[in-house]
Structures are given as C-alpha cells and as structure tokens.
Design goal:
Blueprint (H helix, E strand, L loop, with lengths): L7 E10 L4 E8 L5 E8 L3 E8 L1 H8 L5 E9 L4 E5 L2 E3 L6 H13 L1 E2 L2 E9 L5 E2 L1 E8 L2 E2 L11 E6 L3 H5 L6 H12 L4
Parallel strand pairs: 3-10, 4-11
Antiparallel strand pairs: 1-2, 2-3, 4-5, 4-7, 5-6, 5-13, 8-12, 9-11
C-alpha cells in the first residue's frame, strides 16, 4: 500500500468558483514517477438530521399516533427528480454539526429539538469530493419557526419509525438519507 509521502503534489489549481463549491485539480507525481491530474470539487461541510418526533407532539399537530421520523420531499434540479430526504444543510462557519442540525431542522421543518447527538462524521465520495458530512440524531421536538431559504421548496412529512428505512430505499433513493438511517439503526435509535 502506498503512503501519502509517496505522492508529490506538483500543483493545485482552482479552475472555477461558485457560490456552492469550488472545482479544480491537483497535479500529482504518482508513486511510479508518472504525473496525473486528479479533479475535485470542494464543498463546505453538511449535516443530515435523523429527527424523531414523539407520538404526543405529532398527535397534537396532525392527529397521527406513534413515533415517527421527520422527512422532507423536495425537487432536486440537478438530477431532475423529487426525493424523500431527511432534513439537511450546510454547516455555517463556526458551527458544530449538532448546532447546525438544530438550526437546519427548525428552518426546514418548523420543529426544534431539545437534544442532539452526533452519530458520525465522514468524508463523502472521496474519489472526487472534498466534503465532510455529519449525521446527527435529534429528539424532544417541539414546534418552532420554519424559515426556508430562497431556493428551498420543501414539503414536510413524517414516516413511522418502523418503516422509515424501507420507505427510504424506494426509488428514487439517495445516499445521505440511506446512510443516516443505517447509522441510526445500527446505534439502536430507530
């Protein structure tokens, strides 16, 4: 196995900058002495929230009984599909994953948690992205104030905990929702 010191960074080039991410390449001398460009997109960290809403809160809101998880449905212009997703968003400068999760959850769904816990932090699509993601579990939800960004057109929905993973596996499925639910299930939270 090669080690990082066997790779010599010759040049790092940012080819473009957008409000969402930067893109470019690193020119590297590989362990065999050849040179190759490795292209990347650099994105800010993001958080995905597995939010458990209790039966008593849910019943007072819409008459549903039993604990559920909060989801949002949204159209994703990049892939031209509507997805059922867990609430998620960018971690702002100076924010922890748990603080970002509480903020994003309230902004997107109108519910604020009384407690949050970081389940996992990991690198996403390491072959092409410079992007870290945190998965946060939130509970003790109470009504708050919804405040969508100007590019968010979300429908809030709930799914019973016992069928959340099965529902998330239906097409079209997405990585952040599946990964987050699997982590929460492994930790015995759902």
């Amino acid at each position: 196995m090669t080690t990082p010191d066997e790779w010599d960074l010759r040049e790092e080039v940012t080819e473009y900058e957008t409000p969402w991410y930067d893109g470019g390449y690193d020119l590297l001398e590989q362990p065999d002495g050849t040179e190759k460009r490795y292209y990347w997109a650099d994105l800010p960290p993001a958080v995905v929230v597995v939010a458990r809403i209790s039966a008593d809160v849910l019943e007072s809101v819409d008459g549903t009984d039993g604990d559920h998880l909060l989801f949002v449905e949204q159209y994703r212009p990049t892939i031209r599909e509507t997805h059922l997703e867990l609430p998620a968003g960018i971690v702002e400068d100076g924010e922890s994953y748990t603080h970002a999760a509480a903020r994003e959850l309230e902004e997107e769904t109108g519910f604020k948690p009384s407690s949050t816990a970081l389940l996992q932090e990991y690198a996403v699509a390491t072959g092409v992205l410079r992007h870290d993601r945190g998965v946060v579990y939130a509970e003790g939800l109470e009504p708050g104030e919804r405040e969508l960004d100007n590019n968010e057109f979300l429908e809030v929905t709930t799914v019973p905990i016992e069928s959340a993973l099965e529902r998330a596996r239906e097409q079209p499925a997405n990585d952040s929702t599946l990964t987050s639910l699997l982590l929460a299930k492994e930790d015995g939270l759902i």
